[in-house]
Amino acid sequence: MESRDSLPSGFSQNDSLPIRLVAPGFGHLSPEAAASYSLPHHLTYYFFLFVWEGSTEFEVDLEKIEVKTHEVVFSLPHQIRQLSASLHGNTYYKLGLPEACLALLPRHYAFLLNPLHRQKIRFDAAAAARLRTIFELLLGLLRTPETHPELILAQLNSLLTEMNAAYFAVDKQPADDRLAKFLEFQLFVEDNLTEHPTIERIAEDLAVSTDGLYQLVKQYAGLSPKEFLTNRLMLEAKRRLYYQQRSSVKELAYELGFNDPAYFSRLFKKVTGKTVATFFRDLS
């Protein structure tokens, strides 16, 4: 079984780094393998799609996103992803990186936590041209499997720095300290999701007041902290139903930290508009 934070076995195009890049005429899988990976599946790595020219449709966590010229869409480990087959008629670059590869880079890239809940990034013409140049440099480096990893990592740092800058450029209220605190909130939620932490506990851990936490999460997520936690739990429920094909409400509820399966069922229907049984049946 693959690690949940790794590329599938045999995918890497470098002898020392786990990385895979696909572009027109480069890096494509066999038709049989491509068919299986075009289906919805749980990601075990970070995935980026840059459309230089054209458009395509991308689906992440069961939501469709249209990707147009000079746009990047990204998805994260544990998300459910599906690509459109029409992509291959466009000029594009697809990149897969596991956490093990990102850990070798000299900095963290806050956009990979998706604090603004935008999985699509728009680039102006100049930035898009720089992005394409970096992808082409990476493509050249990956044509030779024994390329020194430092050369590849240098280009990856430039690539992710461009994406990080463009992601946050749309936020017209730059407040780095507040954004950093919101990222802390997101990390806390991810690390303690199934423990159902109280808002008071989260605020105490982040060294803010409960009112300050409310204002912070409302600014960046448009939700209250409680709504954010609930939505994240229900998203996790949908992912597990989709990926694990689990139909037992009781088992799923206990996995997600709910002591009362009936309450979990009511909450799931309130947030998704469907019962667990209906959602599971619609996936079949």
Automatic annotation (TrEMBL):
<feature type="domain" description="HTH araC/xylS-type">
    <location>
        <begin position="183"/>
        <end position="282"/>
    </location>
</feature>
<keyword id="KW-0238">DNA-binding</keyword>
<keyword id="KW-0805">Transcription regulation</keyword>
<keyword id="KW-0804">Transcription</keyword>
<protein>
    <submittedName>
        <fullName>Helix-turn-helix domain-containing protein</fullName>
    </submittedName>
</protein>
<dbReference type="InterPro" id="IPR009057">
    <property type="entry name" value="Homeodomain-like_sf"/>
</dbReference>
<dbReference type="Pfam" id="PF12833">
    <property type="entry name" value="HTH_18"/>
</dbReference>
<dbReference type="InterPro" id="IPR018060">
    <property type="entry name" value="HTH_AraC"/>
</dbReference>
